[in-house]
Amino acid sequence: MQLSSPRLRAALLAAASLTLVAAVLPPPAPLGIGDPLFPALGNPGYDVLAYDLSFTYKDNRTPLDAVTVIDARAERPLERINLDFTHGKVASVEVNGEPARFEGVGEDLVLTPARPVPRGGRLHIGVRHTSDPRGRGDGGWVPTEDGLAMANQADAAHRVFPCNDHPSDKALFTFRITAPAGLTAVANGVPGTFPAHRSGSATTWTYRTLHPMATELAQVSIGRSAVVHATGPHGLPLRDVVPAADRELLDPWLKKTPGHIAWMEERVGRYPFENYGVLIARATTGFELETQTLSLFERGIFTGEGYPEWYVESVMVHELAHQWFGDSVSPRSWSDLWLNEGHATWYEALYADGLGTYSLERRMREAYQRSDQWRAAGGPPAAPKPAAPGEKIGLFRPAVYDGAALILYALRQEVGAAVFDRIERRWVAEHKDGVAGTADFVRLASREAGRDLGPFLEPWLYGPTTPAMPGRPEWGTPKSV
């Protein structure tokens, strides 16, 4: 029988093509890019250019209906495409406008397109799926008293949406969030061109980033929230998201942000993004998080007893500093985490020192005394030991916080304050919106210092024990385990 419909013929040919491809390809397998700490994360063969994420929210106990659209470029011929994704159900997949086979293998979603994608070819991937906020408490969606927020660091974005879940592959993001009336949805970046669209009892909110972002820094907040707008240095738009019932209570803290930004800009240069603000959630997470342009904080840090004002401010500066160190300049691998946390801790400590409450010298000397113990327990700052399975937060140990800030202190002692300040400014300027690692930092520091700093920094970065502190013989040697 001859087929008279061109569309029907095309559909049957595509289905036959899929069957033939499946017959000759080996079984789908999870892939990774070989990150030393998260070897299964990331996927080779393509570069993501943009994500377009749509979520339909009902309540924080029900899976969200979602559509993830990915635009990417193939870096080699691809007969299969691996995405990182788990904790959701996939309904359908299209690649370049045609249905594609899909299969979950481990924490990968493996796609087989109707036809191979050539090197340099365009990839337009559409995945209809659910995004489940229930269950695992080690990242991804964070239930709050009145909705949801995201905490994707380090390896949890793929528990929310299909992606190339590694900070070395940054991309632009668009968010479309539909939520019931009475709730407010906010995401990274700036609102879309058109105002929120109301249809019946639901509202759709759209946001987009103006700078590329790592998947671990994506943020979506849904809840009974107030969005507080203000202006920071040189007209920078500020946007804070707080529980509506707490707006007046939290307002004194929100008013500190412009001063914090001005303080950071004096030290490292212009704030790198389109806007900034704090997202204060009615949730208990045990951490604060530098999601890009909208840092996540627990409400309790601002309202709980036992937190002095200087400490809260220094934590706010820590997450703000990450916007330069970790967000604008993202780590090449997770072993480069010390560049994120060490710098954020450094500016946190420097800010507290300026308040006259906890001197930088005292904090660094205390860190020096404990440094060998930290290295023995978790590895040296630039070569941390992997976290135990299911305990990703275990990666965030003292060695990559105060232990890494100690490296920066030692560097400043070695090259002098003026050269150190040049290194800091040049680092965030040269790698803005990009990816960089430890070797890049050593090269840049050497260039600014006018000599090879590799022999000096190597034992600080990778040594099992802590070197002597330049210019501080009275500090002695760190305490042994």
Automatic annotation (TrEMBL):
Family: Belongs to the peptidase M1 family.
Catalytic reaction annotation: Release of an N-terminal amino acid, Xaa-|-Yaa- from a peptide, amide or arylamide. Xaa is preferably Ala, but may be most amino acids including Pro (slow action). When a terminal hydrophobic residue is followed by a prolyl residue, the two may be released as an intact Xaa-Pro dipeptide
Gene3D superfamilies listed in its UniProt record: Neutral Protease Domain 2, tricorn interacting facor f3 domain
Coiled coil start-end: none
One BP annotation, GO: proteolysis
PANTHER family reported in the protein's UniProt record: PROTEASE M1 ZINC METALLOPROTEASE
InterPro entries cross-referenced by the UniProt entry: Aminopeptidase_N-like_N, Aminopeptidase_N-like_N_sf, Peptidase_M1, Peptidase_M1_aminopeptidases, Peptidase_M1_dom, Peptidase_M4/M1_CTD_sf
Record's protein name: Aminopeptidase N
Aminopeptidase N-like N-terminal domain span: 153-215
Keyword terms, alphabetized: Hydrolase, Metal-binding, Metalloprotease, Protease, Signal, Zinc
